[in-house]
Amino acid sequence: MKNVRLSIATMMTVVLASAACADAGAAPTSLGAGVYTKEQAESGKAIFTQNCSSCHNADFYKTVLQTWRGQPLTYLFEQVMSAMPADKPGALLDTEYEDAFAYVLEIVGFPSGETRLEYGSGMMDDIPLEVAP
Ligand code: HEC
C-alpha cells in the first residue's frame, strides 16, 4: 500500500516538473515576471550611462511607465529607438537599446529573469507596460 502511494506521488512530481519546464520555455508576458536577464542589465548600465543618464534618471522612467501603462512595451521601445538619445536619435544598435532598456527596468524595480529582452522576437507585443513596483 505504501508503495502504491509513493509511486502516485512520484508520477505527480514528474507531471508537475514537466509543466514547470514547459512554462520556463515560454516568454514571460508581464514586467513582473522577469523580461530581461541580469547580465543584460549589467551590459545596459554602461550604455545607459554613456547615452541616457545625462538627461533622465529613474524617476523620469517611473513617470513614463505611469503614462504609458496598459500599452504594449513594443510601442514605447519603438519610440525610444526612433527618438532617443534626443541628441542623436537612432544612434544605437538594436541590442544596445534592448540592454539599455533592461537596465531601465532594473533601476525602476522590475525583477530580472531567464529570458533576454528582445525586440526582434516579438515578445514585447505581449508585455503591457505597468506602473513600477
Ligand atoms: C540629450 C538629452 C537626452 C538624452 C541623452 C536621452 N533622452 Fe530620452 N528624452 C529626452 C527628451 C527631451 C524627451 C522628451 C521629454 C518628455 O517627454 O518629457 C525624452 C523622452 C524619453 C522617453 C519618453 C518617451 C515618451 O514619448 O514618453 C523615454 C522612454 C526616453 N526618453 C528614453 C531614453 C533612453 C533609453 C535614452 C538613452 C538611449 C535617452 N532617452 C537619452 C532627452 C534625452
How is the biggest beta sheet arranged?
Answer: none
Distance between the termini: 50 Å
Which strand-content bin applies to the residues? under 5%
Radius of gyration: 19 Å
Number of strands: 0
What is the count of DSSP helices, taking H or I runs of 4+ residues?
A: 5
The molecules bound to the chains, other than polymers, are:
heme C
Shape: globular
Mean pLDDT: 88
State the helicity in percent bands: 55-70%
The stretches of 5 or more residues where confidence is low (pLDDT under 50) are 8-23
Chain oligomer state: single chain
Helix/sheet category:
mainly alpha
Query: What is the string of SSEs from the N terminus onward?
Result: HHHHH
Number of domains: 1
Structural features, described:
The chain has 133 residues and is mainly alpha-helical. The chain has helices at residues 2-25, 38-51, 58-68, 73-83, 94-108. Mean pLDDT is 88; it is low at 8-23. Heme C (HEC) binds next to α4. Heme C binds next to α4.
